[in-house]
User: Fold these one by one.
Assistant:
Number 1:
Amino acid sequence: MREQVSIEKYVADLMDVDVSLLFTDCRFRKVADARKICFKFIRDYTGVLPKTIGEYFNHDRTTVNAGIKACDNLCLVDKKFREKYNKVYEAYHIENKICLPFDNGRMEEEYLIDLQS
């Protein structure tokens, strides 16, 4: 099995941005899009609250919620963004290259159970 890297590092490399910029207020499109993908993956696959994700990235919960919503919308209308999102998805689900913060080994099983409730 290959060594896993953090979601932040993987997405930053994919989007060709410095990983440290994800934790700043930088609003360049590439950085903001990378941050949105990180927000979405962490929220969807760990179930961590937006407030906690925001604290991790030095942003508030409303920024996290807006980023998650923007990620969903961009996946619908922006082909290049969707392709990058799908690369992250494949790296996480198929290739098992990515590890997420706040993940206690309870990936999709609990997430899927929550969806059925």
Number 2:
Amino acid sequence: MESSTSGVYEEVGEKLAMSIGGEKRPDALRRRHWERFASVEQMAAGLPALAAGLAEEQAQAFVPSAIVTRIADGVTARCRLALQEIGRTEEG
């Protein structure tokens, strides 16, 4: 069963606007696509803490680096955006 409105309108293509787990064709979506999609959500939820931890380790082992901090902050911002795009905030 198709979950998009693309099949209703002839002038609209048969593909989703965004892929789910790498698949854009609604009739081709399978469990593996949803599982791939879910793993992106898990990764985006966990990466900010990992990036912050690595930045802290680098600062303690060597010298604090503004570049490493900016990279960790960038990872956090991108993950937050990814979670928002897939409809999930950090809180829920």
Number 3:
Amino acid sequence: MAYKTHLRELKLQEQAKRGEAMTWQQIADEVGIAYSTIQRYVHESVPSPDYSVIDRLAEYFGVSVRDLIYRVEDDETPEPVGAGAL
């Protein structure tokens, strides 16, 4: 089992709200995490998410943790993460 995020969609929504393009580096800097960390969450399944990173990203995008991250079983079927799962 692993976790994936909705970061791509959230970035597009944030860009539309701001009316300007944003880079992953800008987001990483504003959130206070390394660029390599945000890239891992954007492009890969994460077997064990860092809860402090997930909390900061959720706060940055103004969403709940549940709206940011979801669990992927071995068959790649997304399953929403419940509030108690993280």
Number 4:
Amino acid sequence: MVRIDETTWIKAGIELSDGAACLGSVLTVERSDWSTSVCASDPSDFYLHVTVKGGVLRLQSSTDGVHCPCCGCAHFQPRPPTMSVPCSGRGNRATHVTVEAYGG
């Protein structure tokens, strides 16, 4: 989750939709927009890249950490965002998260 304030934020992750694992994201800039896309590969190990630069937020996903197609872009106010990493595993499985870089 990247949060500028209570009316400007994005959250993204894997979710189940109609029984299929999907990359889902909710973008809120005054109003919320929810989008999903079916995962083409194993959703148990993936990367999310979130970049906020020059007032633009860019969301990318990857299964190999190298090829990172853009999943969405949005205007974000050019203020330092707050970042949180809420994570959950399925059942009793552990969830591993690594934050590689954050400049907030």
